[in-house]
Amino acid sequence: MLPHARAEITALAHHSAPASQGKAQGWNVQLWELTEEDVARVGAAYRALLAVAPTDELSQLLVDMGIDALGPVPSTDQHAKVARADAMELAAAATALSVDGATIDTLHMPNIPKMAGMKSDSGIDIVGVELDPTEDGELVDGERLLIVSVKHTTSKYASGMRGKLEKSISEDLSGPYLYRQLTTVHGRMIQSGVTPETAQRVFHFLRETLTNPKVRLVCVAAAAPPPDCNLPDQPSQLLETQAPDAHFRMLLVPKISSLHRELF
């Protein structure tokens, strides 16, 4: 369900290596220390997301109209923040493939790219759905829903980001909000060739979402490595979760405060 950057996200997934850090307050904790090569792969995915492969005619049209397919290099703090947010969502998508067993064909990313380049939306950033096309009733073994919320910070202290992530997959994940998200996923599943009967079953995940063992909830937190940020200390501060499959995934990104300059 991702039309662009599929090969680049898949390539990044092959190199992503979040290591298990055990459990904390019911959360499964993972840590991925990105290398400079990983950051370069994130940049390649970002550019592939924004720039289609144009024909000569389209390339000339863009030149004639003064349009840069990638857009201008961020010139404000807010624009830079939004560019970094998009990049971190792409990195999180790679971990959905490498850690959560999702496939590139089942991922949906409703907030990327940020159209105005000025606002990073809150809530769900990545949705993955696996449904058995031979079933027509209640959910069965092997069917599952992946919900991922992604945030980053350039601050030295990660507690605020951690709290926002916890909120995004608990009290912010209301029935009406999730229904709207699944409605979009439902439509895109049909567009991709899934039968309407199978796609309709995605709404079964609305039942007791936060305690449903077929639903994996993932918080992805990205920040600079220590000593520039205390992100690795945050798992001990997590609130107790009752979700049966909750994950707190930390991405340590070198030079994250200037990451936006590497994307264009």
How would you portray this structure in words?
The chain has one domain. A 7-stranded mixed sheet has the order 1-2-7-6-5-4-3, with helices on both faces. With 264 residues, the protein is α/β, with parallel strands linked by helices. The mean pLDDT is 91. β1 (19-24) and β2 form a beta hairpin. It has 7 helices and 7 strands; from the N terminus they run αββαααβββαααββ.
Write the topology of this structure:
Blueprint: H1 6-15, E1 19-24, E2 27-33, H2 36-50, H3 56-65, H4 77-98, E3 107-108, E4 126-130, E5 144-152, H5 159-168, H6 175-191, H7 196-200, E6 215-223, E7 246-252
* Cα shape: globular
Q: Count structural domains.
A: 1
DSSP strand content: 15-25%
- How many angstroms separate the termini? 25 Å
Radius of gyration: 19 Å
User: What is the helix content?
Assistant: 25-40%
| Count of alpha/pi helices | 7
DSSP strand count: 7
Unreliable spans are none
**Largest sheet, strands/sense/barrel:** 7 strands, mixed
What structural class do helix, strand and pairing data support? alpha/beta
- Kindly report the average pLDDT value: 91
What is the element string, with H for helices and E for strands?
A: HEEHHHEEEHHHEE
Name a few traits of the molecule.
264 residues, alpha/beta, 17% strand
Compact summary:
This protein has one domain (6-262). The chain contains seven helices and seven strands; from the N terminus they run H-E-E-H-H-H-E-E-E-H-H-H-E-E. It has helices at residues 6-15, 36-50, 56-65, 77-98, 159-168, 175-191, 196-200; strands at residues 19-24, 27-33, 107-108, 126-130, 144-152, 215-223, 246-252.
